[in-house]
Amino acid sequence: MTFLEILIVISGLSFLVYGINYFISPAMKSEFKRFGLEKFGLLTAVLEISGALGLFVGFMIHPILLISSGGLALLMFFGVIARLRVKDSLWISLPAVFFMLLNSYVFFESMKFFLD
Predict the structure, then answer these.
(1) What is residue 25's DSSP assignment?
(2) Closest CA to 51 of 31, 23, 76
């Protein structure tokens, strides 16, 4: 398994867990309330689960990997902005920053397949 594939699996599993947790954990829903984004919680969870599944499908259908990794990077970009708006510390914001960078890396690395 290549480094890129390992990152895809880590991201996919993480977003699958985060997305499912929205439906299980009241704490996840309260985070959206804290951000003032309560009406976007369900949409975010669905996008996280869809993105995770897209990363896994992307192993076989490369354009899906590109769309999923780009979408998750964008989702986490907005997550970082939401955390900045409520003045969360860097430590608390670090997972959003990490997954934004990880999925950006996957996106740009997967673009190389189209450019070659």
Answers:
(1) -
(2) 76
Token readout for 74 is 């964008």
Is the pLDDT at 42 greater than 80? The verdict is yes
Q: What whole-number distance in Å separates Cα of residue 77 and Cα of residue 100?
A: 6
Average confidence score pLDDT of the chain = 96
Question: Where are the chain's structural domains?
Answer: 3-111
Four-CA torsion 82, 17, 55, 32, nearest 10 degrees: -20
Q: Is pLDDT above 80 for 114?
A: no
The 10s digit of each residue's pLDDT in 2-37 is 999 999 999 999 999 999 999 999 999 999 999 999
Placement of tokens 């995770």 in the chain: 52
Tell me the residue ranges of DSSP E strands in 3-83: none
Determine contact, residues 15/52, Cβ cutoff 8 Å.
yes
